[in-house]
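job 3f2a | input accepted
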Amino acid sequence: MTQPGGDPLVSPASQLFKRHPWHGVPLGAEAPDLVTCYIEIVPTDTVKYELDKMTGHLKIDRPQKYSSVCPTLYGLLPQTYCGDRVADASRQRTGRLDIVGDGDPMDVCVLSERPISHGDVLLRAIPIGGLRMIDHNQADDKIIAVLKDDPAYGDWTDIYQCPPSLIDRLRHYFLTYKEVPGDSSSGGLVEIAEVYGRKAAHDVILRSREDYRQKFGHIERLAAACNAQSALSDQPSGRRASDLQVTADN
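job 3f2a | predicted structure (250 res):
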């Protein structure tokens, strides 16, 4: 979207406010090898936080009623969407034709040896694998990544370098965190069909990018223009926005 003269049509107010973590933050030029992650929950949280999709603020979803806490940093990948392409990967692997996308951003678990005290932060991480989770017939993959340059995990490149006990902790958490004591039906509709490695994780991320472009391509292009305008504000005066090459996926 441009104004006369070719400059991006971006409101000056866009430079005054925080970008929406889902729509306004790029996944990263090196994705899927290196991705930007928005962290919602850290392992010490006893309250479940999640991104409010309408406002872009982190909100309280609910207090954790029971002892289950997420064993890793947990959040989402910006500008991704679990739609039909993501669901099709699960359909192909499981042979089940009833699986659909869950309509949310792609979830990510980030391993780090360093404690991070709170969510609502951005970080860069290296995807090494994932869990092909199906929740009530919806594809709900969990990408597993390691914090870039982490002193303990930063050299890992594939899920098979993880100790089995760590994968078991993640599997146990996602299979049981919705269970209610005494209610045998509360968690039975969640399953993890497989644990996959780096190559499959890259495929799922790319599928989620294509799903996002199909669903929110107009927002992605506007976000790219906003990012270009921000970059221009750091340049010497006198440069026009049209002098700055802006590329946005169609």
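job 3f2a | Strands lie at 35-41, 47-51, 58-63, 73-76, 100-101, 107-111, 121-135, 138-139, 142-147, 190-196.
job 3f2a | closed
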